[in-house]
Specification:
heterodimer, A: alpha/beta, Rossmann fold, 2 domains, 14 strands, 20% strand, B: alpha/beta, Pyruvate-ferredoxin Oxidoreductase, domain 3, 6 helices, 21% strand
């Protein structure tokens, strides 16, 4: 298999087409635009539809329509655009439709900035829209993992009939790394629920998120949450390194995890018992895996490119058993290996 | 070994392209590599730069803050990055565009190696207009052979065939010629 050098955004776009994505609807925004640009160039040639919508709101509702007809559909944006999509995402979740939503994060709130950030963790894992619902959230940390998770995202979306988010950021989207596209035979499951042409051979399907009777609505939400229980059992994923004997566990996801890993390596060379725990799924949060990684830990340090959003999930996952400290840079600034190393060393001094 | 490189200049001088040449070369040598461009307003007329990391190990942060090698193609790039170059690092300056006087660089004596090369002018003189970036790259290949994880002239020559589309085949030879000019200085 040939290695190619690709930007994270372009690799994601290519992987989406290979994973059977037939419809992409989007609206340009930095630092996400290469996804749209790549698909604009290639989607039609490969038998798909690329459409630049008049707005993010239009784009997400087009995704709803395409997903309802049973095809694999995707949209991508960055913070401000993702916020605009939130109504549509809630409708998609309420209609039990599978789709993939990509957020190449930039600094917020508001228009914020265009440099890399992880400040949409809460939005992605808590409430991208109104109502009781969740999305599976994948957090890649390299261009290769962006590709692998794109395949996974479409499969997970179809399997559980729910929206899945790939939470990338400006750093991962813009950087180039050598990658290999896996030779996977894509199997798209049957979708007997889809609203597509059937020549009156079966009763018609209805895709809807409106239930005016409280009992009906409660039942539909309960049924969805039963699926979330399976998601929580089967989907959590994380990478642990050096955690077996770690007294300090650094927890970081996405781009921040790359920096944290370098800092952990540096600290290990100095004899500090430190490990790295990197959640690959943010929802469901890898609760059992972090508990395992922290068996010998006295303290956890969360390193993020925001004001400390994942900290809450770590505390909840560990039942507040351990102190969880935070270090981060934000606004488009990226923490340096030196800064993170200094944090690890100062904690190591304190817990002696 | 990890070698961190910043290539910086005005948009249009080919700083991102130089970085891509190194990135493809590293890939051909099976060396780990990351390439990260500056993006946003600066690439539309202001200064542009890219970070390139070469390493035998997996690469952590792709953002270079303290480079081993700096290629600076204008004065703003010199001002922005020269103080962050690691002790013992090397700086390559296009002196036909960045025109700080020699005494500006005196204070860095003994800390970093500075190579001032009139690359854009040399490109003009050799009928390779606009290829000052590649002349500087040639000079880097000559002066930093121990820092480039085995990347040499032949690797870069092969990389050109991967980056330059067949429609612009003539540019492959020109870029190769520019590397040779840089190596010859």
């Amino acid at each position: 298999m040939e290695k190619v050098l690709m930007k994270g955004n372009e690799a994601l776009a290519e992987a989406a087409m290979r994973a059977g994505c037939k419809c992409f609807f989007g609206y340009p925004i930095t630092p996400q635009t290469e996804i749209s640009a790549y698909l604009a160039k290639n989607m039609a040639k490969r038998g798909g539809v690329f459409l630049q919508a008049e707005s993010e709101i239009a784009a997400i509702n087009m995704v709803l329509g395409a997903a309802a007809s049973g095809v694999r559909a995707m949209t991508s944006s960055s913070g401000p655009g993702i916020s605009l999509k939130s109504e549509g995402v809630s409708y998609i979740a309420g209609s039990d439709l599978p789709c993939v939503i990509v957020n190449v994060q930039r600094g917020g709130p508001g228009l914020g900035g265009i440099q890399p950030s992880q400040s949409d963790y809460w939005q992605a894992t808590r409430a991208l829209g109104h109502g009781d619902f969740q999305m599976v959230v994948y957090a890649p940390a390299s261009v290769q993992e962006t590709i692998d998770m794109t395949y996974l995202a479409f499969d997970t979306a179809d399997r559980f009939r729910m929206p899945v988010m790939i939470l990338s950021d400006g750093l991962l989207g813009q950087m180039m790394e050598p990658v290999v596209f896996p030779q996977i035979e894509v199997k798209i499951p049957e979708k007997p629920w889809a609203c597509c042409g059937h020549k009156n051979k079966r009763p018609h399907n209805i895709i809807n998120s409106l239930y005016l009777q409280p009992d009906e609505l409660e039942n539909s939400v309960n049924e969805r949450f039963k699926r979330y229980e399976i998601v929580k059992r089967e989907c959590p994923a994380a990478e642990s390194s050096f955690c077996e004997d770690a007294e300090i566990v650094v927890c970081a996801f996405g781009a921040a995890a790359r920096i944290a890993k370098s800092a952990v390596n540096t600290a290990r060379e100095k004899g500090i018992k430190v490990g790295l725990f990197r959640p690959q799924t943010l929802y469901p949060f890898p609760v059992e895996l972090i508990e395992k990684a922290c068996r010998k830990a006295k303290i956890v340090l969360s390193v993020e490119m925001n004001k400390g959003q994942m900290v809450d999930d770590i505390r909840l996952a560990l039942n507040c058993r351990l102190p969880v400290e935070f270090f981060g840079r934000h606004g488009g600034n990226i923490p340096t290996v030196k800064e993170v190393s200094a944090q690890i060393e100062s904690i190591s001094e304190r817990i002696k | 070994m990890l070698t961190e490189i910043i290539i910086s200049g005005f948009g249009g001088q080919g700083v991102l392209f130089s970085g891509k040449c190194l990135a493809y070369s590293a890939m051909l040598k099976n060396v780990n590599i990351s390439w990260l461009p500056s993006y946003g307003p600066e690439m539309r007329g202001g200064t542009a730069n890219c970070s390139v990391c070469l390493s035998d190990e997996p690469i952590g942060s792709p953002l270079v803050t303290e480079p081993d090698i700096l290629i600076a193609m204008n004065d703003p790039s010199v001002d922005k990055f020269i103080r962050s170059v690691k002790q013992g690092g090397k700086v390559f300056i296009d002196s036909s565009i960045a025109d700080r006087k020699a005494d500006f660089y005196d204070k860095f004596d003994g800390k970093i190696g500075i190579f001032r090369i009139p690359a854009s002018q040399l490109a003009q003189d050799n009928g390779l207009g606009g290829m000052g970036n590649i002349i500087l790259l040639g000079k880097v290949l000559k002066e930093c052979s121990d820092m480039l994880c085995g990347i040499d002239r032949d690797t870069v020559f092969e990389a050109f065939t991967k980056i330059i589309p067949p429609k612009k085949e003539a540019l492959i030879e020109k870029n190769r010629a520019a590397v040779l000019v840089g190596e010859g200085i």
